[in-house]
Batch of 2 targets.
Target 1
Amino acid sequence: MASWSSLGFQDAASPLMEQLIFFYDYAMLVIILIVTLVGYMMASLFFNKLTNRFLMEGQTIEMIWTILPALILIFIALPSLRLLYLLDEVGSPEITIKVIGHQWYWSYEYSDFLQVSFDSYMLPPNELPDNGFRLLDVDNRTVLPVNAQVRVLISAADVIHSWTVPALGVKADAVPGRLNQVSFAVNRPGLFFGQCSEICGANHSFMPIVIESTSTDAFLNWISSSSD
Amino acid sequence: SLERTRYATCKHYLCYKFNIRVSACFITTRMGLFEKDFSQIPCFRQTFMYSISTGLGAGIVYFLLTSKIRQATHFGVGSYAIVTLGYWAYCRYNFSKEKQRTGQLRKALQHQVAYEGTELESKVKGQ
């Protein structure tokens, strides 16, 4: 999970996030190389004594510095487009949950099985255990089974919110009157935290999301106990 | 390894409640820029091995042939950049292809257990 001074991505907890991190590494190396190269060229200009007052054109160099960046962009664009379409695939989800954003909490509905629905409020500091995570822990976590394809339908009841879990690589706006869909599969057990990502009022910073991914048995036990 | 664990024991209350180890109990971080272990990035090591050695070699050879320091430096840096970009794209493309094949194979093996002894298996084997 993220802690203070974290600048990079959290460890991936879904195949999609792994792919996003792979693409990020790939593109970042290209970008850093370009920046280094241009910086080197600019630095060497400081020590350059060549001048040509009658310079009018340079067809060869213009062709080079047009074609080379175009090639680089193609090499970045192809994996990017592949990932873009991969993110939109919805491959036979096994579970569908509905997430509704309110001011200032999330409510979840599991309608596949018995009707299970609950609200998820942030634990205020005075109710937080000594070893809880401030501003991140909630009273009712969203439990999901590991390695199951999950479809999440996101909407809102009042103003626009945004449901996100960085470790899973998902983020979608919760817009009133609209249904947004995200699909993912959690590939390891654990707790994954997220926070509302669209300004929604006074307590926008105090409506976190916690996904708890467990074994299928534990998930089924939780579902049956929740429906009771 | 470059991993560092910030808390030696589980601090999250869920660990006490359910006696389970959740990944949030151990906040691991990594040394290095952006907590990233660069050696774990696929193709990173090979790319920089080839590009640094090519850049150095090309720069030295150019200097030996022409005795021009500045141009040799330009040539070395240019070769380094071209080899880095070129080999990185080539290596990552192969890595991506291999990863996709491995994923398909893993899925096929998982399904094979379910389809064993059924009509579908005999149909697939017949093909």
Target 2
Amino acid sequence: MEDERSFLDICGGPLTLRRRYYSSYCREFGLSSARLSLRSVTAVTCTVWLVAYGLFTLFENSMILSSAIFITILGLLGYLHFVKIDQETLLIIDSLGIQMTSSYASGKESTTFIEMDKVKDVIVNEAIYMKVIYYLCILLKDPVKPHEISQVVPVFQSTKPRLDCLIEVYRSCQEILARQKATSASP
Amino acid sequence: MVLKAFFPTCCASADSGLLVGRWVPEQNSAVVLAVVHFPFIPIQVKELLAQVQKVSQVHVAVLGTWCHRQQEPKESLGHFLEGLGAIFSHDPWLQLCRERGTRFWSCKAYHQVSTTPDKSIEDQVMLIFYDQRKVLLSWLHPPTVLPDCQAGDTTASAGGLADIFDTVARSEVLFQNNQFDEGPVRLSHWQSEGVEASILVELTKQASGPVCLLLASLLSLLSAVSACRLWKLWPLSFIRRKLSTCEQLQHRLKHLSLIFSTQKAQSPTQLMKKANMLVSVLIDVALGLLLLSWLHNNNRIGQLANALVPVADVSGFGLCHISASTCQVCLSPGAGVGSFQLPELWEYGERVAEELQHLLQWLMGAPAGLKMNRALDQVLGRFFLYHIHLWISYIHLMSPFIEHILWHVGLSACLGMTVALSILSDIIALLTFHIYCFYVYGARLYCLKIYGLSSLWRLFRGKKWNVLRQRVDSCSYDLDQLFIGTLLFTILVFLLPTTALYYLVFTLLRLLVVTVQGMIHLLVDLINSLPLYSLGLRLCRPYRLAAGVKFRVLEQEAGRPLRLLMQINPLPYNRVVHTYRLPSCGCHPKHSWGSLCRKLFFGELIYPWRQREDKQD
């Protein structure tokens, strides 16, 4: 079962939440943000090249122009490969774990998987950053002291959705976690 | 909890048969290791499993049945398979089936709660496919090591996935049977096409035994020689401590003896350490040979020798130079023959001395418009100039012999690039020895002056430093003590700018030299400690170094069990470097910036790159 809805992120940009219910114990949430716009790429490239051309007329050294071209290309590649995140996915599977994937604009994917034994809870926490913002995070258990929290792992860090989107995700996650707690409590 | 069945991808197209593997009750998961095909005799299957269990300490059992309907046209097989549940009793009993006509699988798990088998819902079984070969070969790196967690706890608390990896890795003996064996039982797993091996690897393994033995004995001989008591005598031990080349050679010797030791590596970490050291040594030697060929090929030494211009005549020292050059002519008739003439390094030494002379002339005048105390200025300037004159004469005297020494030293580059860099650092230290001497003179003078000034300043205020109590106490002075104290204080204060300027100039020069040496040592450290083998492994075989796993949901139909693909998540590069860094004689700066500034202000001698101590990571 799959559905898509549009939301807004903290800064007002458009986001798309795609939910997939594979089964009663496996769900996936994908948040995609806006892609890289041609306008901003052109603006940055033109600025850099104008500056380089200005320096070239000053110094009469053609190395400046070739280095400007190199810098632009490398900067764009680096931005696409290391900075620009297109989509963030949260896959939650009962009794297995929670997996978070970030896909970059160049196609690179970086994945983190947390086993269900380590997950204590999934909560929506608030933070104060010029205004109040909300973020979803996973609380991890301390293996030595099971009642304490050892780590807080925030989810959707670069897409930063607003509270309405987070509530949807939070409700679904809590259903699965409740199920998991019920089945693990009864042997 | 949902029942998880880990199924190897290599068995997805195997014929029907029995599922053999391990049941992990804590995670409610079944790890399938192999499929036993028809025909088989149950007794022999049980014997094989008992054998495997004894060798590998893994509780291997028959977990259920596997039915590949696309290859079995007979429908009666289903009933036959159900009957097998009675022979090999296991709770829960799995029945995996790959349907004909659809790409989807069906999976049932039977729990024998009562006399009649209790059917559980299909939905509650999850199929997870894994690549057996990759899981077998990979080493799992736990994300964080808690400080208060003992080594024995990590396997228990590391969770289900470490268990799965562990199970597959320890069942290696099960994968030794392949289809070409004439055994009673026919198995299907990742190695059923035949055990993977390569001739080169086998030959190297056979040859490595005697080679290691030979090299280990040679290296132990070398270590014994280097540890003998002769080196502890005063001049040799002093030289040994001061030269970084000796330390680098010792470091490399230690590495080599570890690589060629006859003991087998006990754990994967030790194996990686050995491999990293070996690759590091090989790359080092390769770089050194490249450097050597570059130096000799383009007649670089000859070119550098041609750049040698006879020493520019400095007025006042002409006599010394003429005498020195006649010495040179007498002692080295063959100096012009061949390309092994005086290297440029020597010429640099003379140029450095000339630059220093110009600097001192400048200081003796009115440097930067400051007015110095003429008498003290002349004294200090003349003293340092005479020192330089001695140094230049020394260079001239040594020049005939030094070319051969340097050529032979240049050959040491074939021991490795790190050794060549260490020798370069030592040569820089030797050539700038006079800068070091000047720094020490200037620093001592300045230090004395500062201490005198502070003590006399206390005298002004009627106080005294109490050495016993390590504090400042009041004290009453006599009139003549006060009078002399005031005189001395005035003299010292007015001479302070001159001394301070000389101190500043020579300290800056010394810091420059120290920075250059520090850079070279950092580079040597980098070559020594970078784990190149691990980085190469991460690049070419990323599944070997695993940080964790990742799951992908495969195409799914409602009502069918969920199918996931488990893949290995490789370790990121920065963690690879951090985990597998080789211990090095790290030249960490001893002082923080604050203490360095304090020492500079008070004129205490600084040695920022103290690398003699054993700083093991």
